[in-house]
Amino acid sequence: MQKSLQERSWKFRIMVILSITLVYAAVFYLLYDKTRHGVVTNVNLIPILLLSWIWGVKAGLLVMLINSLICSGIIIRIITPDAIIGIEAVQAMIIHFSFALALGSFSSLNRKLMHQINEREKVEKHLQEYKKQLEAMVETRTMELQKANERLRQAEKMEAIGQLAGGIAHDFNNQLTIMLGYTEILQKRIRDDSQAKQYLKQIYDSGKKASDLTKQLLAFARKGVYAMQTVNLNEISTEIKNLLSRGTDKNITIITTLNAKNPYVWGGINQLQSAILNLALNACEAMPKGGVLTIKTDDLIVDQQYLLSHSLNIKPGDYVCILVSDTGTGMDEEVRKHLFEPFFTTKKENNGTGMGLAAVYGIVKSHKGAILVESEPQKGSTFTILLPQTSKIITSPDANNMNSVPFSKNVSVLIIDDEKRVAATIKEMLYEPGFSVKLAYNGNEGIEIYRRYWQNIDLVILDMIMPGLDGLQTFNALKEINPEIKAIILSGYTLNKKIEQALENGAKAFLQKPCTRNELLSHIKFVLNQKVSVPLNR
Ligand SMILES: Nc1ncnc2c1ncn2[C@@H]1O[C@H](COP(=O)(O)OP(=O)(O)OP(=O)(O)O)[C@@H](O)[C@H]1O
Ligand SMILES: [Mg+2]
């Protein structure tokens, strides 16, 4: 291909040279008779210079040869047989030859140089483009790195706050269990003094609020344990839409778009409901003048590319994506930065605890998911939760239904809790239905009592965190005494794995402190009536 192009280019050049020769001969013929050889040769020099310059030494020499043939008389003789060839013509030939050679060589050299310069410029241009591309790549990578660093710092901060919050919640739970427990007992005992009853109600309500707050703190700190089951996020979305449609501002339009074909995730139904509800409530609160709240589900394949572009720290795979967006006030950078921190709120005093999103964050994390936020002031907000999809379809029995099942006989319970006052409160809670209760304040003591009386003990209520033998070690020892043991793990602060291990080893249920008397009784009913072992929580 290259060769044929070259051949064609040379054919073209020869044609041009021949044409020039013709013109050249004609001009020579016309001027020669004027006997001024010099004029002829000077005129002839022009094509030689021109072609030498344009096409190099070969073309120049060719034209010069033709010129020489004419000048040397061969053509002249044909055209004008009596012409005399002057010495100027020979001189001109020599000059032409030198010019053609010099100019042609110079031109070739020049062209070579020009070619090299062009090539260099091309390479430089490419290099510039690569440089720009590289710079752009470095810039985006740096930004991604900065974002990832920011997220890491944020995650570390949240982790530290979580540890702190978890610790506080644990201590609060113990105190609240005592306060709520005794308040309930007093409420039942005081019958006639309505003033005192009102005071007790106030104490109970505040205690309940404090207990809800600690529950949110625990959710944030990911210290809660809950019954795992298959949860349908499309169903939850519909339930939340129905719930909000009844209670919210009529100016807010709620739209659900349930695109997820496999909307199932493995998790705690109450926790997931409360997470989505929190997002939806925030969305409604961000639209005081009305607007549109959209709840949308989708199937999403999360690959490395997606993880990188969103700086996410979850495993690649199939996810259900639930999006809650509003057309409300939106958020600025500063609010976005602190959004998930516990007790961060922009609401006026007493209107918000600032625990809503902190709890959502903890719940999503404990479900091995991720949460993304997009928001700008006055442009609304979109929260997207990603949760790993599951194909297991299993649900657990509803503990509340067990309330109706009566106790068939008096029940004997062993309570093992290092917090003497907590143990005493639980004992008091169980006092009325006619339970017989034994108390132990550490694992060893509990094992000793169980070894002696296990045939008469229907149920063990066991604290998880205790000095010496912890709940799991104690449970394992009790199980060796009686493999059929029925035990409820009761704890305010939990190491997830230990609780899960105890449930796996055969403990029948888990109940989180602080718990109300009703909750405790319904759990006891459930455990004493159940045929299969199901980890369970409120
Ligand atoms: N959809 C939203 N649009 C605008 N701002 C929001 C949105 N969701 C959350 N925020 C901001 O984030 C803050 C923290 O939200 P979070 O739910 O944690 O607490 P809260 O709503 O203030 O209090 P609580 O949930 O206890 O009522 C809010 O005060 C608000 O400023
Ligand atoms: Mg909120």
Structure description:
The chain folds into four domains: 2-124, no CATH class; 149-221; 229-388, Histidine kinase-like ATPase, C-terminal domain (Heat Shock Protein 90), CATH 3.30.565; 400-529, Rossmann fold, CATH 3.40.50. It is built from 16 helices and twelve strands. The protein has helices at residues 2-32, 37-55, 57-71, 74-79, 87-189, 194-221, 233-247, 269-285, 304-309, 333-338, 356-366, 420-429, 443-453, 471-481, 496-505, 517-529; strands spanning 229-232, 252-258, 264-267, 291-302, 317-326, 370-375, 381-388, 412-416, 436-440, 459-463, 487-491, 509-512. The protein has a five-stranded mixed beta sheet. The longest helix is centred in the N-terminal third of the chain and has 103 residues, at 87-189. Bound molecules: adenosine-5'-triphosphate and magnesium ion (MG). Magnesium ion is lined by residues 278, 281-282, 352, 356.
Short description:
This protein is an alpha/beta fold. 58% of the residues lie in helices and 14% in strands.
Note the topology.
Layout: H1 2-32, H2 37-55, H3 57-71, H4 74-79, H5 87-189, H6 194-221, E1 229-232, H7 233-247, E2 252-258, E3 264-267, H8 269-285, E4 291-302, H9 304-309, E5 317-326, H10 333-338, H11 356-366, E6 370-375, E7 381-388, E8 412-416, H12 420-429, E9 436-440, H13 443-453, E10 459-463, H14 471-481, E11 487-491, H15 496-505, E12 509-512, H16 517-529
Parallel strand pairs: 2-4, 8-9, 8-10, 10-11, 11-12
Antiparallel strand pairs: 1-3, 4-5, 5-7, 6-7
Helix pairs in contact: 1-2, 1-3, 2-3, 2-5, 3-5, 5-6, 5-12, 6-11, 7-8, 8-11, 13-14, 14-15
The protein binds adenosine-5'-triphosphate and magnesium ion.
